[in-house]
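Two proteins, back to back. First:
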Amino acid sequence: MENIKLAVDYGALGILLLMSILVLGYAIERLLFFRALHVKSYESKNRLERDVSKNLTIISLIGSNAPYVGLLGTVGGIMVVFYEIGMSGGALDTSKVIVGLALALKVTAAGLIVAIPSTMIYGAFLRKVDIALSEWEDEIAQAC
């Protein structure tokens, strides 16, 4: 059972770590892109929109799914605690139960720690997309 407990713990935390690395990498890439962006160089709004919104879907998906990964890890951890209680034959050590539940809940906290910044980063980049599209439209209006 200890192997299952470790797999649930480290599996969920590993997935959340991977998700946070992906968000950080894509956020840095998008930040560098927006710093170098020149809307005047785009001939069509559709091409600009494709370029400015690139990789934002991944950030959004991570932000919306990280809490579920955390919850899955918590449910797995709680199942392990209940299994251990059942296997103890009724001799219940409350300190072990409480520690087991607390450790299970850490995965939910980790999921929220990944999800909240991811959602904020996504929202910030959506605003940058709106501004870039607006600037492009202003450039077209001035050219006419």
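And the second protein:
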Amino acid sequence: MIQQFIELGRGFGDIYELCELIKTNEKRYHHAFIFISKKGDAQVASIAVALKPVGESKFMPIYVCREGIPYNPEKPSKRLEIFEQTLHELGKKAIPMEVKHSSVFSETVLYYQHLIGILRMNHFIPPKQ
């Protein structure tokens, strides 16, 4: 199984696009994630959804809006509320995870490889075959 992150932007339009991907691919839905990281004194969230492969394909896309959402558990941002409401409408919940901030890595590709390793290790996505 090949998993790959596909990065969307960080704005409201991108959140709506991710939510529409979830709705139109409801049959392919695998898991949704809220990756929480810290940079300096601030916490930020990335939201993502993993979709099952199409047909005989061995490709699992993971669509993500990376680190563009300020995170405060007591006062959720509107973008996070939109994401969680979309999941709620489908009877799903996002899996929250604390991860390193992408700025810790010299390249974004390495950050995504790190996340794939964490997701595989926790059995949220299948292993590489």
